[in-house]
Specification:
The chain folds into two domains: 59 residues, Arc Repressor Mutant, subunit A (Orthogonal Bundle), CATH 1.10.10; 79 residues, Glutaredoxin (3-Layer(aba) Sandwich). It is 39% helix and 11% strand. The protein contains six helices and four strands, in the order H-H-H-H-E-H-H-E-E-E. Strands 2-1-3-4 form a four-stranded mixed β-sheet, with helices on one face. The structure holds FE2/S2 (inorganic) cluster. FE2/S2 (inorganic) cluster binds next to helix 5.
């Protein structure tokens, strides 16, 4: 989608205009950009750089410096695989590998249709339920290696 036809860019333009296209407003602009787009993509960062008359490397540098900023889209759903000790002992790494293979993404990535983000964590405090995965905030306990998606596959669209 081009910047001319994508209404999100109009919104972003208004934000920057309100801030007077000030170079010093970069962090605030990036904040708004993430709020509007959900993440900071390359095209969006280039757009911001051009409008604020900053180099792309400067804008990219600030975007990558703060953990708060996301440079990749977030999926509509997410699976978090626990890799803490109790889960690891019970095969969570294999569970992670199976999910990675099933969706063709690695931990930390999102599918190209933005349906699913795959993440990892170190212990949810539910070790007695190991191995554990969390699907859209819901804990799935004692996940089996044979069927790691435990019926959630149909919800991922
Ligand atoms: S190690 Fe996985 S819940 Fe504690």
């Amino acid at each position: 989608m081009s910047t001319a036809t994508d209404d999100r860019y109009n919104k972003l333009e208004k934000v920057m205009k309100k801030l007077g296209y000030e170079k010093n407003s970069l962090i605030e602009v990036l904040h708004s950009t993430q709020g509007i787009f959900g993440y900071l993509g390359v095209d969006t960062l280039k757009f911001v750089a051009k409008r604020l008359k900053l180099s792309y490397s400067k804008v990219y540098g600030v975007a990558t410096f703060y953990n708060y900023f996301r440079l990749k889209p977030k999926g509509r759903h997410n699976i978090v695989v626990c890799l803490g000790t109790a889960c690891y002992i019970k095969g969570s790494e294999k569970i992670l590998q199976k999910i990675e293979q099933r969706y063709g993404i690695k931990a930390g990535e999102t599918t190209s249709d933005e349906a699913l983000s795959l993440l990892t964590a170190r212990c949810f405090g539910s070790c007695s339920l190991a191995p554990v995965i969390v699907f859209d905030e819901e804990i799935k306990a004692k996940v089996s290696l044979e069927n790691p998606l435990c019926g959630i596959e149909e919800s991922i669209k």
